[in-house]
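Dear Dr. V.,

Thank you for agreeing to look over these. As mentioned in my earlier message, I'm a first-year student in the group and I'm still getting used to reading structure tokens, so any feedback on how I've presented them would be very welcome. I ran two proteins. I've put each sequence directly above its structure. The first is here:
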Amino acid sequence: MDARRGPAGQLGASGASYRHDTTTSERRDSPVVARRVLVVDDTRLSREALISLLKGEPWIAALDAAGDLAATMERQRHFRPDVVLLNMATVGCLGIVAAVVGADARACVVAIGVSGSEDEVIALAEAGVAGYLLRGASRTDLAVTMQSLARGESLCPPQISTALLRRVASMAAERRSLAAGSRLTAREHQILRLIDQGLSNKQIGQHLGIEVRTVKNHVHNILEKLHVHRRGEAAARMRAAHVSSTGPSRSR
């Protein structure tokens, strides 16, 4: 028996096995790349509805389903899917993504029902998702996404691309600020540490024995070099630079 097909049977308490295989002639005549697809959804009605919708699609070579993390990992071992379609409403969806990608770095996970919020998009990207489908995505959108993945591409809706690009721009700005921090003078570093301790300009002046006017000039230079607008932002960048250079502290 082909190891990729695996035996049909129960997938666990929250998932049942579904199997659909196209014939050899169907695959030969189809202009699209057929993939082995695993649907992961912990709501039985929506899982069965999606399975029913996908049966017969030319881009599907074989179809199976799972309803939870344990079933997903079992089907990944035996069914060996090319693509995992994961409903974002599934409990522990990020953990499922991490487990699937961790078990096989080549695994392609497509998140379906994505809200499009920046936090969710970034969390999915960091977990290893290869494709995104918003809640309003159609059957055609899914087919186009699948064919993009078959070509080694990641097709993202504009809303998703915007969130990802915004994150990249933010990370680039943080790196520039951290690099700028290395250009601070010894006095500016000293003042920045006092700012981080919550001291006012007057208190910093008294602590260092310098005029408040001089402190203000130093603070202005610090903000310009770090490309920030407020003292609190400057202090936060200093802390971030310290963590980046020393690594996060570990509790003993």
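The second protein is here, in the same arrangement:
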Amino acid sequence: MALVQRYADWYEKRLIRKHNALKQQDAFSWGLAELGLDSKTNDPARALSEYVDRALADSDAFYALPDHIPYSVSDSELTFPSSIDVDSEPSQTVRARVYSGARTDYGLVVVPHWNASGAAYDALSWVLSRLFDIPIARISLPGHDERAVTPGAIASEVCSANIGRTIRGVRQCAVDIKAVARWLRDEKGIASVGLVGASLGSCVGTLAMAHDPLIESGCFIHSCASYGEAVWTGSATEHVRRELEKHVPLRDVSHYWDIISPGPAVSKLASRRTSTTIISARNDSVFIPELTARLRLIYRRAGVPLEHVVLPCGHYTIGHFPFGIAALEAVIHHIREWTGILPLVRTSRAMHGLWPVLGVQRQ
């Protein structure tokens, strides 16, 4: 156990250095124009705060979809225009890779993490579609893959020191996910849609699930209560904090980004029958454990069922051997419990044998 933990800590630090070396920070901006507000106001903090308060008071409207969306499918790629207007033409077109399945009672949307290529989640999507024989759509988020203005650049659309642009980008993610879920229902006849998301994908997935009764299940790898606090305290976003803290305190950042935070959205699940699993890392320096624990408490206080699986690794090493196998088993277990479908290939029992060896915990 100690040897596994030392390896995980060493490899995690190596991956953090690798990822952070690529990040460059945009200059601070209130981002009022990106939200349709007057950028020339004398009190941008008040204008932004009032905007957020209005959005929180009617978050269903904030995350609403239009009545009609012109979908198109070609060579297993779903495309359609995003209903959130942005100033980047590539991000305006939503793209999702579709994997077929014979069943029509359940379907999944797979939501990658920040700055991940969609291709990194194609193997997972294919495996899950084969194991459960269900349709799966792996979405590309704004600023990612073909939706990036500059290929390979950091997707600042969804996380930067531009407060308003970050709100708009995360909102777009959630609304785009809802639109993909609607396509699964309308075009594939899916009765119940679930989500599998990681990190940023977990945050925006929670927002989509909370604001769409069609989405009844969420399996979220890494999640947090507050988007603002995650950015402020996370090792992956130190460059964003350095710029933000020159202009606004954490208290205000947290409030501005409450509308894109999982915590405030959880209460909307209280009146619905849902299935949620959070898979977190004990030594996560990106979504620190305190923020995950607070989110778990919010679920419990709201009376929303939640299963929490904790792996003895870090944010990045959760995707690497041997922890990636344990995470995959937890995802498969969640889908099996939600759907009642036995996987076509019985891999789960063998993988589950790793849990006591690695020190995996269910809470």
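From my reading of the second output: Residues 23 and 101 are 38 Å apart (CA to CA). The radius of gyration is 19 Å. Does that match how you would interpret it?

Kind regards,
E.
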